[in-house]
Design brief:
Layout (H helix, E strand, L loop, with lengths): L2 H4 L4 H15 L4 E3 L5 E2 L9 E4 L3 E3 L2 E3 L9 H10 L3 E5 L10 H10 L1
Parallel strand pairs: 1-3, 2-4, 3-6
Antiparallel strand pairs: 4-5
Length: 111
């Protein structure tokens, strides 16, 4: 379930709703996506997470992961290391003119 489907609410409330719906809907993952302010320093419990490339916020500023700009991956890489429950990352590929295929492949491997 995407956190956006739960609605624009505080993260704690979104997690409560996710926990409430999990048994009846057999939910397996929570996608942190655009639409909720997913702070990097929030303690996400043992819920399998999928990260969208524009979901994390640091001090109320959205941090966007762009494969054409490798320096943007540090916050996401740190988040993944600190939250062993991240099972996938949903990334929008850059436009062809933003980087070459080899640069894209290197960025993915680096991440």
């Amino acid at each position: 379930m995407s956190i956006s489907a739960i609605g624009i609410r505080p993260i704690a409330e979104c997690l409560e709703i996710f926990d409430l719906l999990t048994p009846s809907l057999q939910l397996e993952y929570l996608e942190l996506a655009i639409g909720s302010n997913c702070q990097i320093d929030y303690s996400y419990p043992n819920i399998p997470l999928i990260l969208h490339d524009s979901c994390l916020y640091e001090k109320n500023h959205r941090q966007i992961l762009k494969l054409s700009k490798p320096e943007t991956s540090a916050i996401y890489a740190d988040f993944i290391q600190q939250h062993q429950n991240v099972v996938a990352v949903s990334i929008h590929a850059p436009r062809r003119w933003e980087c070459s295929r080899s640069e894209l492949e290197y960025s993915l491997l680096d991440l």
